[in-house]
Structure formats: structure tokens, C-alpha cells
Amino acid sequence: MGKAISYDVRVKIVKRRQSGESYKSIAEDFGLSQSGVKKIWYRYQQVGEAAYLPDYSNCGRPVVYQPADYEAVNLVRDNAQGAAYVHSKLVQQQPDKQVPSIRTIQRLWVKQGIQRPKGKPSDREKKVE
Question: What are the residue ranges in the chain where pLDDT is below 70?
């Protein structure tokens, strides 16, 4: 399996490649594969200095939930409860079904524009009993 290549090493790879060194010699000096060195170089050619930073956009597996799953999330949230509460309620209601994770629920609410504001509520926002 591949390993992460540090920012400094990526910069050195690009500098050495710009000076005309071969992929093979660069890879041997840093203990990397030639394909890894090529990927850094090609990415540098495409996006410039952004190639020095890691790209995690393709990491993880995409999980696709049906619209009914998201409707269930919004039905459970009858007040301004947090995602952890809603997740626990869904797990209780549907123990045999895979429910969206807490973070997925939070992202859904951000996308819908119905997330709670961060931080503690002000005195005006607190319930008066």
C-alpha cells in the first residue's frame, strides 16, 4: 500500500524534475516508486504548487442513502436536537437498517440550511419556563 509523501519531499521531487533528473533516479533517492514520482510531477504540471498538498478528494467510499432515509432524519428532529440525538433515535427505531452517521446527518443539515448555530445559545435564545 502507498504511503503519504511529505510536503518537503514533494517540493524536492518537483525541483529535481525541473532540473532534468529522471523519474528513476529521483524515486531511488527518496525510496519511492517511479509511478509515485510521476504522479506528483504530472499533478504539479496541472495545478501548480497545489500539488504539494495532499489530495483527499477520492478517499473513502461514497455511501448513498435514499431520500426516504433523509426524510426519516428530519422527522425525528422535531425540535433543535443535535445529530447525535437524532442518530441514536434512528438506531432505536430501525435497528436492522443502516442509518446515516452523525457526520452525514450534520452535512445534510448544512446542505439544507437547517443546522443549529454553533456555540452556546444566548440568554435570549434559552427557553423561559
Answer: 1-2, 58, 63, 117, 121-129
Q: Which of 48, 59, 56, 6 is nearest to 31 (CA)?
A: 6
- Residue 1: the pLDDT is 53
For 70, the grid coordinates are 433523509
DSSP 8-state class, residue 36: H
pTM passes above 0.85: no
Cβ proximity of 87 and 102 under 8 Å: yes
Backbone angles phi, psi at 92, to 5 degrees: -70, -40
Chain centroid to CA 82: how far?
Answer: 20
Residue 124: predicted pLDDT: 67
Is the Cβ–Cβ distance between 45 and 3 less than 8 Å?
A: no
C-alpha cell at 25: 533516479
Structural contact between residues 77 and 86, judged by C-beta atoms closer than 8 angstroms: yes
